[in-house]
TrEMBL record:
Name this polypeptide is given: Nuclease HARBI1
Signal peptide: 1-24
Keyword terms of this UniProt record: Signal
Species of the source: Pleurodeles waltl
Domain of life: Eukaryota
Length: 176
């Protein structure tokens, strides 16, 4: 009988705690400890070659990109742990350049993995808005000129473009 009574009291206590902690629908969860952001990256102290190796873009282009995307990357509500737009862009560029995992890039950028996931989403959306300013596709009428220029440069035939020195073979679809 005592065991059942103790179990009942324990269950009642747990139920009371759970009900106390439950929040009404639509109520925003408050963090007990706000997310921590530790500034680890400083672009101004890095050598230019290291900047290009890490982010695949030069310092000037990164700063221009940040300036253009800053309104998209600033949150509506200013918060002490808000991550500066430059750090957001640098962390996402590092992620895209390295092909690493969220957690690894987040640690290297000084933020938590969930925070980096939010930053990644925000920066990629901003990049999509400004994509046409940075990515230009060739028109069909430009192909002979581009092929000739690449052949003159390296004596390799049928080259229509280069991406960061990476060779990508384009194979046309089969004729039906």
């Amino acid at each position: 009988m005592k065991l059942c009574l103790r179990t009942s009291v324990l269950v009642d206590s747990l139920l009371a705690v759970l009900l106390h902690r439950a929040r009404p629908l639509g109520q925003v969860r408050r963090w007990r400890h706000p997310p921590v952001y530790r500034r680890l990256v400083d672009l101004s102290t890095m050598e230019e070659r290291h900047v290009i190796d890490t982010y695949r873009l030069d310092r000037t282009t990164i700063l221009e990109l940040c300036a253009r995307m800053e309104p998209d990357l600033m949150s509506v509500i200013r918060h002490p742990t808000e991550i500066p737009p430059l750090v957001q862009v640098l962390s996402v560029l590092h992620f895209l350049a390295s092909g690493s995992f969220h957690t690894t890039v987040a640690i290297a950028s000084g933020m938590s993995q969930p925070m980096f996931s939010n930053v990644l989403s925000r920066v990629l959306s901003a990049l999509l808005k400004h994509m046409r300013s940075y990515i230009v596709f060739l028109q069909v009428e430009d192909l002979p000129t581009v092929k000739g220029d690449f052949y003159a440069l390296g004596h390799i035939p049928n080259i229509i473009g280069a991406i960061d020195g990476t060779h990508v073979v384009l194979v046309p679809p089969p004729q039906e």
